[in-house]
Amino acid sequence: MAVDFLAEKLVLLQTQGFIAESRLGARDRTCLKSLFEAGVLQTARSGAGRRVVLHDANALKSFMSKTYPSGPEGVTAKVSSRSQAIAELRDSKKARTTQPVAVLLRGFNGSTFHSGNQALAVADWSAMAGVAALRLDEKTLWGFSGTVAFVENLEVFWNFEKLDIKADIAIYAQGRLNSKVLAWLASPAMQHARIIHCGDYDPVGLDEFLRLQSACPGRTELFIPPDLESLLSRYGKKELISDNIAILARLRKNADPQVRFVVELINRWGVGLEQEVLLLK
Question: What is the pLDDT of residues 120-133, one digit of tens each?
Answer without folding.
Answer: 999 999 999 999 99
